Q: What sequence folds into this?
């Protein structure tokens, strides 16, 4: 695995972020004000860049991405924070305003296309409907655009395929339709939550390639939710590592792979097989992510961390900024008491 993304860019050089999540906190239902499902999550995504939200299952990646567009399941309250997109705080928007954002300036691609596509409408009508709502196009114009979009995302015989229903397409083709719908109204940002996880490995690579081309051609910013570090290395510029609802590290992809600054990130990297390295036993992170409601005080990774000091790590760990905008939520790393291993260079 190679981290090919750009070196760490300073926030100042990149200008105002397109998306800025600040202090996002989501309560565990029935436990207001306690250790949240997602707590004090902050990150910036700049125009034309791609940022990965990574972490093991249950770390809060999906809740964070759903909260951005007001799509949290009912009963999950956002206690605090802001989500500024293009200057507007989406947490202050009502449902009507959010509908204008979703599928318009922000496209969404979910893991399971079948649960997002309408099974009773042809794929052409679904894409055309988005253009009619968001861009005010007439039906015939919108259908022509839908055909061009299906062609753009690599669906053969687009003229015929606009009349297909989702169940008549393979999983990979359905995901291409989802992507066509996501880019239908000239978005600035696409949020993709595990877009390739449900697909065969060969199809996964094709879908990632498609997303990469679209990102370049359409100047898109992409927020990618994934637990696949290979995808992160191939596709992303920046990365936010989440653990048990906290952001534990924020950096460039290069920063993460070569100079991780949180023991959890370093442990994640050690658990990935390295091509070209002699076969050795893979390191496993002992234990598992604590269930919601059982998060420990202070550093939530502390019970699984080989570098933890019980007294110190049970205290709150504020995020510390290191050189080049690299941020960690480990007080021991920030103080220089712990040195961590990344992947070998070369
Ligand atoms: N509706 C809900 N009510 C209570 N807890 C929930 C609800 N939805 C999610 N959670 C909990 O919130 C935590 C974060 O879930 P989330 O789906 O964001 O994790 P994730 O990192 O995206 O995991 P995965 O990779 O498996 O999708 C988990 O502990 C989950 O059990």
A:
């Amino acid at each position: 695995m190679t981290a090919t993304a750009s070196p760490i860019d300073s926030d100042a050089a990149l200008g105002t972020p397109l998306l800025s999540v600040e202090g996002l906190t989501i309560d565990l239902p029935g436990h207001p004000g306690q250790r949240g499902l997602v707590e004090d999550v902050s990150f910036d995504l700049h125009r034309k860049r791609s940022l990965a939200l990574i972490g093991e299952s249950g770390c809060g990646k999906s809740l964070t991405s759903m909260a951005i567009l007001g799509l949290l399941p009912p009963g999950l309250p956002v206690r605090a924070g802001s989500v500024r997109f293009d200057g507007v705080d989406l947490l202050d928007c009502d449902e009507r305003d959010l509908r204008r954002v979703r599928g318009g300036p922000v496209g969404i691609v979910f893991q399971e296309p079948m649960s997002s596509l309408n099974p009773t409408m042809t794929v052409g009508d679904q894409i055309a409907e988005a253009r009619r709502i968001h861009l005010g196009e007439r039906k015939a114009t919108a259908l022509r655009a839908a055909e061009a979009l299906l062609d753009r995302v690599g669906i053969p015989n687009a003229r015929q395929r606009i009349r297909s229903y989702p169940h008549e397409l393979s999983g990979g083709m359905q995901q291409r339709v989802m992507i066509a719908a996501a880019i239908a109204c000239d978005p600035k940002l696409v949020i993709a939550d595990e877009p390739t996880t449900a697909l065969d490995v060969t199809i996964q690579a094709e879908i990632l390639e498609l997303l990469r081309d679209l990102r370049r051609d359409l100047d898109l910013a992409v927020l990618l939710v994934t637990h696949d570090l290979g995808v992160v290395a191939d596709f992303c510029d920046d990365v936010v590592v989440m653990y048990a609802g906290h952001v534990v590290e924020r950096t460039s992809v290069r920063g993460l792979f070569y100079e991780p600054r949180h023991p959890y990130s370093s442990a994640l990297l050690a658990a990935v097989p390295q091509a070209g390295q002699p076969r050795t036993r893979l390191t496993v992170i002992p234990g598992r992510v604590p269930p919601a409601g059982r998060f420990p005080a202070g550093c939530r990774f502390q019970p699984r961390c080989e570098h933890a000091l019980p007294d110190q790590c049970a205290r709150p760990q504020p995020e510390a900024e290191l050189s080049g905008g690299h941020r960690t939520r480990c007080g021991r790393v920030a103080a220089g008491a712990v040195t961590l291993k990344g992947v070998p260079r070369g």
